[in-house]
Structure formats: C-alpha cells, structure tokens
Amino acid sequence: MLWTSDFRGKTVVVTGASSGIGRETALAFGAVGSRVALLARRRAALESVARDISRHGGEALVLPTDVTASRAVRAAFRAAHAAFGRLDVVVNNAGVLIPAPVTELRAADLRTMLRTASRRSAATARRSSRSSASPRRCAWRSTARRYTSRW
Questions:
Q1: CATH number for the domain harbouring residue 72
Q2: Average per-residue pLDDT for the chain
C-alpha cells in the first residue's frame, strides 16, 4: 500500500496554492483523493488549480485569501471547515518571492518576503489548531522557519 492512500478522503488546506510548490502540492493531494482547500491571493490562478484537481477526480475549494491578514485566514478556515467538515492537514506554503540576486534586493523587498513568511506562518498556525477536528491530530507543515529563525 502506498503512503498516499493515507490521504484519501482527508481534508487538506494548502496556502500558496496558486503557483509553484503550493500548486503542485495541491494537485498531488487532489490526485490521491483528498479534499483540497486552496488558499492564495489570485482567484483566477486558484480556479485553474481547482479545475485541474476536478479533472483528475478530486475535490477542491477555492478560497482567495491574503494569508498575512488574520481575519482573512480565519474566514478561509471557517469556509473550509464548513465545506468539508474537518481539517486534517495544513501545508503552510504561501510566500512572496522577488526574483533578484540578494545583492540587488532593496531592504523593503527583503522585509516584504520575510514579513509574508512570518505572518502567514503565525496566522495559519493559530487557525489550523482551532479548526481541525482534533487539534492534536492536524498535521501542519511550514517552510517559514527556514526564513525567519535566524533573522
């Protein structure tokens, strides 16, 4: 039995689901039969991901959300919980990337990237622990620690 069968029928929230790693993560969970709540700022991109998930037999919920805004995250988690009944896994992936060599980044650009990573991490962590069927059983994964622990 593949490890992916463990996620069939589970509800997965993916932040940053509109592109890159978040998109691919959402598609992978959808392909194994998870119900996927898609969070990111760009509705059109999320709808494209949802169509791809549906095309492969999965179920997706589009929730345009700015994950740096606590109220928006709260509303998105409530909507996901209302639609799917429980939350089992949260993949906290949202972030901002300004594609430039670090020597060319302005201080404001660097602050934006770090602020997005740290704020989305905090807001999503709070919501995931309150919204899961059993807070001790909701798996949560974030990449923010890599970016904020030494700053």
A1: 3.40.50.720
A2: 79
Give residues with Cβ within 8 angstroms of 128, minimum separation 6.
13, 77, 87, 90, 92, 138, 140
- Tally the domains of the chain: 1
For residues 78 and 86, what is the distance between their CA atoms, to the nearest angstrom?
A: 10
pLDDT at 1: 44
Q: Token pair of 94, please?
A: 């949202």
pLDDT > 90? residue 3: no
Range list of H helices, 5-151 = 20-31, 43-55, 70-84, 107-131, 144-148
Q: In what order do the strands lie in the sheet with 89-92?
A: 59-64, 35-40, 11-15, 89-92, 139-142
Q: Kindly provide the b/e burial profile for residues 28-44, where b requires at least 16 CB atoms within 10 angstroms of the residue's own CB.
A: bbbbbbbbbbbbbbeee
Range of the domain at 61: 3-144
Kindly give the pairing relationship between strand 11-15 and strand 89-92.
Answer: parallel
Distance CA(31)–CA(123), nearest Å, equals: 27
